[in-house]
Amino acid sequence: GIESIVIEARSREYVEQRIRAGVLEQGTVDLLIKAGVGERLKKEHMYHRGVCIGYRNEHYMLDFEDLIGRGVTVYGQQEITRDLLKALADENHNVIYEAPVVAIEGIDGDRPTVRYEHDGETHELTADIVAGCDGFHGASRQAMPADVLRTYENVYPFGWLGVLAEAPPSKEVALFSHHENGFALLSMRSPSISRLYLQCAPDEDLNEWSDDRIWDELDVRLGAPGWSLERGAILQKEVTPLRSFFSEPMQHGRLFLAGDAAHVVPPTGAKGLNSAVADVSVLSAALIDHFKKDDDALLKRYSDIALERNWQVQRFSWANTAMYHQYPDRSAFDQRMAEAQLRYLVSDRTPQILYAENHTGLPIEYWPDI
């Protein structure tokens, strides 16, 4: 019953086909089902009861179900996007595609204005509230007053070479591997499609990596006695630089930031999408209170609540990245400390419980009444 308009910079076709990670925390799954967009998710998802960790050519299973009673769900992010956009279309919801936002103004007043370009013309939209969900490069964060915004950033000295392959997954769960050549990850998108990653330079030249070279290096970094990696046609390859980024506060006046507009995590913890969903859960609950109950108590606390959870998510992602990867400028001492942390994780139940709690998702404090 709350009127809203979605302004999307890209076409619907582009948004639906853009392939991104699909590891979902239980809170994310529960919220999608609660919102009425989880029917296909319930039918088509894959469930992982844990993860495997590769270290010194051995694979160690961390059984989250045994440790804490829950695992994670695998369902492609593009599939979630399709479900959401279909639900909006079925409800005749106003979504403006191919409309990049160029400015957000008047956020200190009662009626902020969003300026966007569409069909070669500049348009203005005035609203009560602006939810900035437009990513790291979007206009929303740029609209925050410079004297209010604080930013924190760590650019990692490596990236990921990611491939999408027409090959059945070689493990029933994801495999995170520490190796002297660099980190490697085996994950999956479906029973017939694998997603694999290699640590590389942030400016790695893809032309230097033939399909055979990629598979050979994955074999080296992921390998263990008695285990073999399934190969297949590589459908897509790309290099992604890694960074941690935070801006705070996540609200000012009538503008509220969510997801990558406010925080970016390295993909090692599979937290980007899940953190955005947690933000939106709190923000939607606050907006329902604002519009339906004339109660702004939760809305005023949105930034504090979201930041508290997101800094813990950032901590987990940063620590995982440090533990699994090789750093070109890391001292011998720091390298031994990272390996000591990894040995502790694969050999003791106590750190495994903490790892499982963080990997499967921290609690979402507020849920919308929908």
Question: What does it look like?
Answer:
The protein has a domain at 5-48 and 70-153 and 243-329: FAD/NAD(P)-binding domain, CATH 3.50.50.60. It is 35% helix and 28% strand. It has helices at residues 12-17, 26-34, 39-44, 64-68, 77-90, 211-222, 272-293, 297-324, 332-347, 349-360; strands at residues 5-7, 23-24, 46-48, 50-55, 58-63, 72-74, 94-96, 101-105, 113-118, 121-126, 130-132, 150-166, 175-178, 184-190, 193-200, 233-248, 251-252, 255-257, 263-264. The strands form five sheets. An eight-stranded mixed β-sheet has the order 5-4-13-14-15-12-16-19. Strand 4 (50-55) and strand 5 (58-63) form a beta hairpin. The chain starts with a strand and ends in a 10-residue tail after the last helix. The mean pLDDT is 96.
Q: Taking Cα atoms only, what radius of gyration do you get, to the nearest Å? A: 21 Å
Strand proportion: 25-35%
Distance between the termini: 10 Å
- Strand-and-helix sequence, N→C? EHEHHEEEHEHEEEEEEEEEHEEEEHHHH
* CATH fold call of the domain at 5-48 and 70-153 and 243-329: FAD/NAD(P)-binding domain
Q: What low-confidence regions span 5 or more consecutive residues with pLDDT below 50?
A: none
The CATH homologous superfamily of the domain at 5-48 and 70-153 and 243-329 is termed: FAD/NAD(P)-binding domain
- Number of helical segments with 4 or more residues: 10
Overall number of strands: 19
Structural class: alpha+beta
Helix proportion: 25-40%
CATH class membership of the domain at 5-48 and 70-153 and 243-329? Alpha Beta
Major β-sheet strand ordering: 5-4-13-14-15-12-16-19
Q: Using the alpha-carbon principal axes, give the shape.
A: globular
Mean pLDDT: 96
The largest sheet, given as strand count, sense and whether it forms a barrel, is: 8 strands, mixed
CATH architecture of the domain at 5-48 and 70-153 and 243-329: 3-Layer(bba) Sandwich
